[in-house]
Amino acid sequence: MIGPDVGKRRPKDIGTECETAALKYLQQHFNSVRRSPPWGAQDQGDLHVIFGDKTTIMFQVKGGHAAERASDAQVEVWSTEAENQGIRSDADLPVLVVKRKGKGMASAHLWWAFFYSELVSPDGNARTDALVRMPLGDAVAVLKGWGYR
């Protein structure tokens, strides 16, 4: 007899599939990208761009229905978590990657990337941190333009 869970995928499996898709995409653009082992409460993010022995960019990947339906408030919570993971991993820049509805594993470059960036007024007197959102492919281009390899 077939049970009610046949064909149903576990959230952990979906998360791993999304991490793998993001990893494959990022490996096409950065010299060294590694998957982080699970750390439990001391999570240090999912993927790390490494230069020498230092994590320069930490990516936290969110997938599945929760990611596809995430509210702005949820993205803010996840972004704060990514910031904390970036601190624990000593990354220069933490980036939250969120799978978009209708964008499958082969389209990771179209998923959303979120990171905090300092915005400066034209006169240089006002500064504020802003949560920036752009497709992952555009974020990779920006990061490479900033010198990350």
- Helical content stands at 25-40%
Mean pLDDT: 89
Strand residue percentage: 25-35%
Structural class per helix/strand content?
Answer: alpha+beta
Beta-strand segment tally: 6
The value of Rg in angstroms is: 16 Å
**In one word, what is the shape?**
globular
Q: How many domain units?
A: 1
Q: Largest sheet, described in full?
A: 6 strands, mixed
Instruction: Give me the number of helical elements.
Output: 4
N- to C-terminal separation?
53 Å
Runs in which pLDDT lies below 50 for 5 or more consecutive residues are none
Element pattern in H and E? HEEEHHEEEH
Q: Please list the strands of the largest sheet in the order they lie side by side.
A: 1-2-3-4-5-6
Report on the architecture of this protein:
The model has no long low-confidence stretch (mean pLDDT 89). By secondary structure, the chain is an alpha+beta fold. It has a six-stranded mixed beta sheet with strand order 1-2-3-4-5-6, sandwiched between helices. It is built from four helices and six strands, in the order αβββααβββα. It has helices spanning 11-27, 64-68, 72-88, 136-145, and strands at residues 33-35, 47-51, 54-62, 93-98, 112-120, 127-135. It has one domain (11-145). Strand 5 (112-120) and strand 6 form a beta hairpin.
Give a short synopsis of this structure.
This protein has helices at 11-27, 64-68, 72-88, 136-145; strands at residues 33-35, 47-51, 54-62, 93-98, 112-120, 127-135. The chain has one domain. It is globular.
Structural features:
alpha+beta, six-stranded mixed sheet, 4 helices, 28% strand
